[in-house]
Write a structure and sequence with these properties.
single chain; alpha+beta; 2,3-Dihydroxybiphenyl 1,2-Dioxygenase, domain 1; eight-stranded mixed β-sheet; 5 helices; 16 strands; about 15% helix; binds zinc ion
């Protein structure tokens, strides 16, 4: 399977306004796409990313106002990590503190990792790494470019026993083990060429609680392929591995297939094409509500029902 790394992570949030404020004002990401949940057009589906929506920088949310928070635990993607420069860590300590975002700090494979949550409790991390990462962060007036979020570093999947997930990633999805910390039960797999944006960490939590879906939990993680041909080849590989795989679906900005991995996390494979500029210019990404064709004739009612956003 020719995976190029992570494509996007999709999680669940409650209040869209608080969510937008946190990701754009505190973390300095760009709201690059304002659309609706294709299965429930009365709610937003919002995408945050770098300036152009580069695959591997994209965090998206579904909004289920009034629903309970989930519980972090096994069978879940429990950590979504961005790559920052090693010398940016002091800046982010100060910035998170200034915004009253409580964080903890740990050393992971030699990198300093700041861990915190978003307003709904989603587990987020900044990995301050010396590893080369040429990706450019979105420009933000309060965040020097050298300190910005450069796209994802990794995702952490927590499992009571990661063996079957590990086998799927290594034997069927082109993953390879690159680092292991037996003391904490963490194994890092690299996809494709590896590097920040192409890591999946498997964390063994044999005695921890089982995760429960809800606000502040990850809905699915998506891996990158270049195009439809690579996606259909990946689909055949998943089927050969015995997974229940969806048909290929058109998500307007990419084409997707889905399968639940043996440990319970929903995996997606998404194409780099056509990309987020397919329905609006890069300069104005996210400025207006974009609707799939089937909802366009209901635009007025849909727009009236959606809450305003602080952008
Ligand atoms: Zn997705």
């Amino acid at each position: 399977m020719n995976l190029l790394g992570l494509h996007h992570v999709t999680a669940m949030a409650g209040d869209p306004a608080a969510n937008v404020a946190f990701y754009t004002r505190v973390l300095g990401l760009r709201l690059i796409k304002r659309t609706v949940n294709f299965d429930d057009p009365s709610t937003y589906h919002l995408y945050f990313a770098d300036t152009v929506g580069t695959p591997g920088s994209v965090l998206t949310f579904f909004y289920w106002a009034g629903q309970p928070r989930g519980r972090h635990g096994s069978g879940q993607a429990t950590g979504t990590a961005w790559s920052i420069a090693a010398e940016a860590v002091a800046f982010w300590r100060a910035r998170l503190a200034a915004h009253q975002v409580a964080f903890t700090e740990e050393t992971r494979f030699g990198d300093t990792v700041l861990r915190f949550t978003d307003p709904d409790g989603l587990g987020l991390e900044l990995v301050a790494t010396a590893e080369a990462d040429a990706r450019a962060p979105h420009a933000h007036p309060e965040i020097p470019a050298a300190h910005g979020l450069r796209g994802f570093h990794s995702v952490t999947l927590t499992h009571a026993d990661p063996a079957r997930t590990s086998a799927l990633l290594i034997e069927r999805m082109g993953g390879r083990e690159v680092l292991r910390d037996a003391a904490v039960g963490r194994v890092r797999l690299a996809l494709g060429a590896g590097g920040p944006g192409a890591y999946v960490d498997l964390l063994a939590a044999p005695s921890g609680p089982r995760g429960v879906p809800g606000l502040g939990t990850v809905h699915h993680i998506a891996f990158r392929v270049a195009d439809d041909d690579a996606e259909l080849a990946a689909r055949a590989e998943w089927l050969a591995a015995g997974l229940q795989v969806s048909p290929q679906m058109d998500r307007n900005y990419f084409h997707s297939i889905y399968a639940r991995e043996p440990g319970g996390v929903l995996f997606e494979i998404a194409t780099d094409t056509p990309g987020f500029a397919v329905d609006e210019p890069v300069e104005s990404l996210g400025a207006t509500l974009k609707l799939p064709a089937q909802y366009e004739r209901h635009r007025a009612e849909i727009t009236a029902a959606l809450p305003p956003l602080p952008v």
